[in-house]
Amino acid sequence: MQDGQAGSHNRYIAFEGIEGAGKSTVAARIADHLTAAGESVVVVREPGGTEVGEHIREILLGGDHAPVAMAEAALFAAARAQLIAEKVTPALDSGSWVLSDRSVYSSLAYQAAGRGLDLEDIRKLNDVALGGIWPQVVVLLRLDAGTGLARQAVGDRIGDEPREFHTTVAEAFDMLAEQDPDRFVVIDAAADPLDVVGQVLDALGVER
Asked: Which terminus has fewer CB within 10 Å in the chain: N or C?
């Protein structure tokens, strides 16, 4: 299955955007809303979300030794493969919602556009890692790089890249959304947080 479109996988929701866009906050609020409505919800983050993935996260985001661009992309894909197998697929198969703070689309924006790697190479690498199970809905919290970086409380190796890098990433997210409008929901992350959450709920067809 290319770019996962079938069955229970329509509850696999990714929250994307640059640093400081509010992905984890919005995902948590949507999870709280769904849980209060009686839904089963699993919240995950990338990279990480599993014991293996958290070790890979430390390599990717911490420390002073930066992997080369393709190694970085491969490590993200490896963490993603573990997350899909260990958390995402079982949750979807049980009928739960999966809300993911970042997803494969971050690799397309950060490693392909940001690091200058070939987009199709990164897409193919990650399709293998995902087993074809891509997020059904991608909530892109759109924010300009300057505002996002100013909001960032604590940086990491990638978050501390120059503003130009993050501007390139933001533009890549816009391009991905334009290319796949049926999957992407683009929301102004500079809006009032309650309004942002409400727009996401509307986009998911969930009663407020």
From this structure: C
Q: 100 burial class (0-12, 13-18, 19+ CB within 10 angstroms)?
A: buried
Residue 155 has pLDDT above 80, yes or no: no
Report the amino acid identity of residue 70.
M
Give the span between the Cα atoms of 39 and 31, in whole angstroms. Answer: 9
pLDDT reported for residue 6: 40
Distance CA 14, CA 164 (A): 25
What is the distance between the alpha carbons of residues 39 and 53, in angstroms, rounded to a whole number? 26
pLDDT per residue over 107-137, tens digit each? 999 999 999 999 999 999 999 999 999 999 9
Three-state DSSP at 134 gives coil
Question: Which positions ≥6 away from 138 have C-beta within 8 Å?
Answer: 13, 14, 16, 103, 105, 176, 177, 180, 183, 184, 185
- Residue 176 identity (one-letter amino acid): L
Q: Do 31 and 61 meet the contact criterion of CB atoms below 8 Å apart?
A: no
pTM: 0.92
Cis peptide before 90 (omega within 30 of 0): no
Q: Read off the DSSP letter of residue 152.
A: -
Alpha-carbon span 23 to 143, nearest angstrom? 11
